[in-house]
Design a protein that fits this description.
The chain is mainly α. It folds into two domains: about 1-95, no CATH class; about 100-255. The chain contains nine helices and no strands. The chain has helices at about 1-25, 55-60, 75-95, 100-120, 125-140, 155-175, 180-195, 195-220, 230-255. The two termini are about 35 Å apart.
Amino acid sequence: MILNSLFAFLIGSLIGSFLNVCIYRIPRGRSIIRPSSRCPSCNNAIRLYDNIPIMSFLILRGRCRDCGERIPFRYPAVEMMNALLYVTVIWRFGIGWHVPFLFFFCSAMIVITFIDLDYQIIPDTITLPGIPVGLIAGSFLLPDPFVRTGSLGFTNAFIGLISGGGLFYAIAVLSRGGMGGGDIKMMAMVGTFMGWKSILLTTFAGSLLGSIVGIFLMVFRGRGRKTKIPFGPFLAFGALITLFFGQEILNVYLRR
């Protein structure tokens, strides 16, 4: 398990570096393949030995080797978060064919979070491919986060797709645009990966965190009630909480 976790951490940090490329380029409509990574300040190509996840940031002391401009702390943070999520997947669900799909899901939540924070959009390039991937993987490979030894199955994944997309479509209609189309597709994807029960817990956890952050911003930052706050990051947080702790949360609720 320790060796598997170390390998998952390494893979997670490497893919986390690629996620930074996705977060920067996808909203700008740029290719995530070419050109190679460059400093956004001086546009010089980043050398291979300066592109080692987490370590290069520490070695360079958070500055570009060529122009000396500060490297945003977000870059190593994304790499570290992705690496830790991959390790958590291994510890929670073990080794199997389900692992690459859960890795994809965790990484998708990270990309959605940061793009929505920056641009208030959830890109279709993440959610639309994620829906069929989740439906196929959920039908045959993915575990049910609410039953430790159970599998999700097609019926649960399909109902999750309909309930996730349907619930948030209804919210969008009733709120007259208060909920965006990106949130609808995102929750449809979440449903395919974790089933219909996940929609309820994800929505509750995301709404709770969103309320706490909203109150904090109003009290300490002087934001008004009509200030727009992207909901995608809170839903992503709720989805990850559901993935890793759904069974435990359900058990606590049932014991009440």
